[in-house]
Amino acid sequence: MHLSTWLLFCGVTLVVAFTPGPAVLLAVSNAISVGPRRAMISSLGNACGLFLVSAAAMGGLGVVLNTSATAFMVLKVAGAGYLVYLGIRQWRSRTSVFAELQPSATPAPSRSARRLFGHGVTVALTNPKGILFFSALFPQFLTHDAPILTQFAVLTTTFAAGSVLAHGSYVLLARLLKKQFANPKRAQLFNRVSGGAFVLLGLSLLRLRNKTA
Q1: Among 3, 33, 109, 200, which residue's CB has the most CB atoms within a 10 Å radius?
Q2: What are phi and psi of 102, to 5 degrees?
Q3: Could you give the CA distance from residue 26 to residue 75 in angstroms, rounded to a whole number?
Q4: 3-state SS string over 54-99?
Q5: Which InterPro entries does the record match to this protein (predicted)?
Q6: CA distance 50 to 23
């Protein structure tokens, strides 16, 4: 792979990674509810999920989704359902950064690292846009004069690193704005806005169509 090709891919990666989506929203939501450091656990999980999605796309799952209406529908409904579940959970959440900022307040319930990591992986795996994206993007940057597996590793690692960088930037922004949510009413408003955004993203997946539709 030529350096110019890789640099072009880096540019595309940053544009895609910094575009708000389910993974970015999850990172921001976790940054507010469990803190910036623990929020990055879900981002690392999302990065690992991207490797699995990329491998699936390279293995032909992208072709299956493009040609099988049933397979596409199953994954689409699963992804939409999971995002709606996250939205409802966020909407009903009573967790507030107020509990973390005030020593006398009752500590907010913590989420295990495994659970945070798992949510990140699941968000990556249940988004059909990801598989179709990798299926359409990778062939444009692969060259025939280099081993496919090496290029797969370089491109996927680059994309995963760009994703973590984007999430870190959003998490840092959330940390700077964290005091704005010290008020319980503002925290509840944030939970409802982010929860509604998850639900809308989930419902938007149901409108996604493949080439056979």
Answers
A1: 33
A2: -105, 115
A3: 20
A4: HHHHHCCHHHHHHHCHHHHHHHHHHHHHHHHHHHHHHHHCCCCCHH
A5: LeuE-type (IPR001123)
A6: 11
Alpha-carbon separation of residue 79 from 32, 84, 124 (angstroms):
24, 9, 9
**pLDDT surpasses 90 at 167:** yes
Please, which residues have CB within 8 angstroms of residue 4's CB and are 6 or more apart in sequence? none
108 falls within a domain = yes
Helix axes 184-206, 22-34, angle to 10 degrees: 160
pLDDT by residue (tens digit) across 1-25? Answer: 678 888 888 888 887 788 777 888 8
Question: Does residue 196 sit within a domain?
Answer: yes
Q: Cα–Cα distance between 119 and 171 in angstroms, integer?
A: 16
How far apart CA 74 and CA 207 sit, in angstroms, is 13
Whether the per-residue pLDDT at 159 is higher than 70: the answer is yes
Q: CA of 76: how far to CAs of 58, 95, 124, in Å?
A: 19, 30, 12
Range of the domain at 162: 3-206
The total of structural domains in the chain comes to 1
Least confident piece of the model among 11-25, 32-46, 49-63, 86-100? 86-100
Task: Give the model confidence (pLDDT) of 184-205 as tens digits.
Answer: 777 677 778 878 887 887 787 6
**211: number of Cβ within 10 Å:** 10
Distance between CA atoms of residues 176 and 174, nearest Å: 5
